[in-house]
Fold this sequence. Notes:
Number of strands: 21
Number of helices: 4
Distance between the termini: 38 Å
Structural class: mainly beta
Order of helices and strands: EEEEEHEHEEEEEEEEEEEEEEEHH
CATH class: Mainly Beta
Strand content: 35-45%
Amino acid sequence: EIPSQIVSDCKDAKKLLFQVDLDANASAVYSIKVGTPQAYPTQAQTTFMPRRKDDISWENDRSIFRMYGPALATDKTEPLISGGLDIWVKRTPKLVSQQWYQDEFDGKSSYHHDNGEGLDFYSVGKTLGAGGVAPFIDGKLYLVGNNFHTYTILENGPIRTKFRLDYAAYDVAGNPISESRIITLDAGSHLNKVVVLYDNKEDMCVAAGFPFRGFAEKAKTKVDKRGIADCQDIVFNKEAGWIAYGEPNHPENGIIFLGSIMPCGACDMLIAENHVLNCGKAIAGKPFVYYSGGAWSKGGFENIQAWSQYMADYAAKLKQPIKVCTSYCDQQEAACEKAPKAACEKTCNK
């Protein structure tokens, strides 16, 4: 028996989720039987943190992320309005964020210092952070004008966590636009799937990215005709739709690697507004989908080459997803051959 989870799609239909490990062009057969499933350990979880100024924090066995809520926007000591994505790094598969918060509250230790499991040493501020998103029009980023005002946790389980954040309308090139973000993180993944719902009346360019820090001499980096650009700390691949980026090396804490993917291709990649940007088109009335996240040099990724390979592999899997067919036949080996069509899910910005 392998871990599984019942999840709901956008139409509230129930689906059975389980993870598989397949080589290219390989196949496997899985049987579903009636019975009582085992109690599986949770590997993906989202938590609302009112005691920490309304943070929404989510975590899997690889990374920890958070975004900022309404209480932080009105905090009397250090207010912050930001729709940027924060990342905490760790070297343990255990879910540790709630204990880190509690130790901070109790004064035992700070999650800004490495306690042997990892830490928070990434700075978001008024930026996109570790892969946030914003409209990008005529060379200008329009960051959200407020922190999220409502949240809904949709899934928590052994394999997947999923939640929704809603943002009040803010100015985008003279037009008020509100947005919602539905974020999904699966066990084993360094990247979040982000579905953004804008109420834009016309198509618009949006950009996911990260602040470009400490490399002013490289700020004129260009993408070549193939859509690929390499330097010591950043790799673009426009054709495949992904960017891999390495933060400046911290002498004690190492390097945070960040990445984003436009699964249906990027319309542009550039360094602008002090950010590394991966641009796509938000079609009016349709969800905009991208992926973002990160990893750590002390958590399994030695250098930018290893991280960019992960990004390339992830993007390739999105373009060629596993084909799934189901059958009630006893002869399960022949079920896929007899099925009229292979059921395949793929979400796209188009």
